[in-house]
Amino acid sequence: MKKILIFACWLAGSAVIFAGDEAVEGFVFRDKKAVPGLVITNSVNDKTEKTNRKGYFRIKGLSTESDTISVSGLIDMETLIIPLWGANQIKIRQTGDSVFVERDRKKAPPSSAYGGTIVTREALELTGEINLLRAISRKVPGVEYANENLIIRGLNSINSSVYPLYILDGVETSQVAFLTVMEVETVEVLKDASTSMFGVRGGNGVVIINRKK
Prior knowledge:
Blueprint (H helix, E strand, L loop, with lengths): L4 E6 L11 E9 L2 E2 L4 E4 L5 E3 L5 E7 L5 E5 L6 E5 L5 E7 L2 E7 L12 E4 H5 L6 H8 L3 E4 L2 E4 L12 E4 L2 E3 L10 E7 L15 E6 L2
Parallel strand pairs: 1-10, 2-9, 14-17
Antiparallel strand pairs: 2-3, 2-6, 4-5, 4-7, 7-8, 9-10, 11-16, 12-13, 14-15, 16-17
């Protein structure tokens, strides 16, 4: 059996410890290339997820402070047990017989003036998507991507459109399909009562996009 060396290091992040039903997400690389199809197992309930074609995975139901995940198939038939140590973002890199694990803790999300769901560029990048709207649909619960647009589930359309109102850098617009994840700083998704200040225009939800300055 090969001897596998695992090196752990921390990335910069705020010292926030999450407890309870948290999600852990990250990427797996082999010699700088994404590794799809690897099985990631939750140590709490043995539920599994597979890495996608970009090596990305997201697995729920962990406390992140004391739990572990296991990675099967990265090196031959070995199963690697990786402690989370409070991290909820993780990057696993294999080089030869060595595995490097980088851990990070999510920073506290920016405050919202509208009461919506705020997502940062860093969080969107973890989806592995380049297109901004696709990334939003993968990151925000209840949001779907269709016809180069977003649909916020659970809202009844009160006009001829089913798409939300977009506000880009403070200006209402319908032209957002061209945006990439790398261009934005934050995205805020509003639905339900938080859209009331936008009146009828916000009946299908509101997506506020702030680009990098």
